[in-house]
Amino acid sequence: MVQKTNTPPDSPRELYEIYFVFACVWAFGGALFQDHLIDYRAEFSRWWSKEMRAVKFPSQGTVFDYFIDSDTKKFTPWSERTPRFELEPEVPLQTVLVHSAETICLTYFIDLLLQSGKPVMLVGNAGVGKTILVSDKVAKLKEDYMVAKVPFQLLHHLGYATACVREASREEGRA
User: Fold this and answer.
1) Are 57 and 66 in contact (CB under 8 A)?
2) Residue spans per domain, the chain
3) Which tens digits make up the pLDDT trace of 119-151?
4) pTM across the whole model
5) What is the DSSP secondary-structure string of 61-126?
6) Cβ partners under 8 Å of residue 22, min gap 6
7) How far apart are CA 63 and CA 57, in angstroms?
């Protein structure tokens, strides 16, 4: 994130602060989610904006809706990086990735991890687009990357089976 190309050694302190705040927001709040009752990301965003006033985020949306534009050095909505979608008739629909602000954000962080030589693992419910997103990224990678597919459904089923065995054991203990 902070590199000599976007933050030369003679950069003002405020520029480093913007990158530091951006990193903190994603380090502390990036894994938060919305459940049926509470949107934890929105709660975190409200708390951050209220408590951390040294660096101001735009007032619309949440702190997670913005990235630091490398040219302007200002917070810019992820949605501004979303490419225009054009459906190619010969491509199977199940392999099509329609980018959104969320996928652009995820791709940004995947790119940062890959550029740093770090492994990437996406976790989420079935059908949210992890495979399509990774497949799109892998198709654009150079040949000097090694890609491995691991069937985590097996781990999910083993975890479910273990939970069933535990529940059965508890029920037997009550009888």
Assistant:
1) yes
2) 1-80
3) 888 888 888 888 888 888 888 887 777 777 666
4) 0.75
5) S-GGGEEE-TTT-SEEEGGGGPPPP---TTS-GGG-----HHHHHHHHHHHHHHHTT--------T
6) 1, 67, 68, 75
7) 6
